Write the structure tokens for this entry.
Amino acid sequence: MTLTLTIDTVRWQEHHRGVLDRFPGLVPVCKGNGYGFGLHRLMREATRLGTGLAAVGTVHEAALVQDSFPGDLLVLTPYRNGEASPALSDRTVRVVSSPGHCDGLAGRRVVVELMSSMKRHGITEADLPALRPVMSGWEFEGFSIHLPLNRVGGAGGAEEVACWVRRLREERMPLHQVFVSHLSAEEMTRLHDEFPRTRFRLRTGTKLWLGAPEATRYHSRILDLIRPDRGKRFGAGRRQPLSGPHLVVVAGGTSHGVGLRAPRRLSGLRDRARHVAGIGHACLNHHLSPFLWDGRRCRFAAPPHLQESVLQVPGDGAPPQIGQEVAVQLRYTITRPDRVVEEPPVPAS
């Protein structure tokens, strides 16, 4: 029994085509765990879409997929002098975010990252004079700006990009191509209308791969049943069973991404109240799991193991049986399923 991701392939691919139609010149982002689908699966999909260029996160991801994708690969992590890098194809495009880290890039294909309001990394206006002398030795591909996902107050994303383009125009920088992120189709149209000689290309992964939630689902199976015996301890931690008539063992543990949480920024009283309530439940060892039974989330009966989890199943419905399917709500960007099943199956390429 395994943790499985099932894809409605026709619906998933129809969504991809719709995104590509709204964003001509789109650059698919295929990085990390492949948004839950796997890097090689996304590269096959990018090949089918015919974008000609795909973005990966690191040089190691580029080396991993360069033989399975016939187009160019844009490495999003900025280049650093002296970095340890595997052998990369001539189709690889590197990102520069600092004029002080350009050694060894002569004759190489380069994109320059601009500092955005996200304030993560990028060339600033003060860096432009130092950047110009080294640009002449590159095969320059264009500029890039990574906008924040949530913009609160101030100028919109399109206006932030436009301000940079105007500034670069004043410096007589080459503006044939600019890569952007987190813009709507309407914002992209506004940029093309204002700067018709510049090609704006949206880089996106979430919008493309995860924008059709009805086309994909995670699910698991019940591997075993445990009959709680009050007063007796169980599990690796020798914990006492909590209340509830049914304890079940299901496929899916920490190696798959089950039970993992990233810190999140809290805003507003409601968010903070929920967080405090969650701390209270945690103090009582009441932890909600991502597994659902009869549409309700089950609690962990013990901390998830590497490949399995033990759950408390509510006892007001039909008793669970070994082999029954359990729905799972997981974050795609941190999940690594045992297998991916496509319906209908995609022919091997």
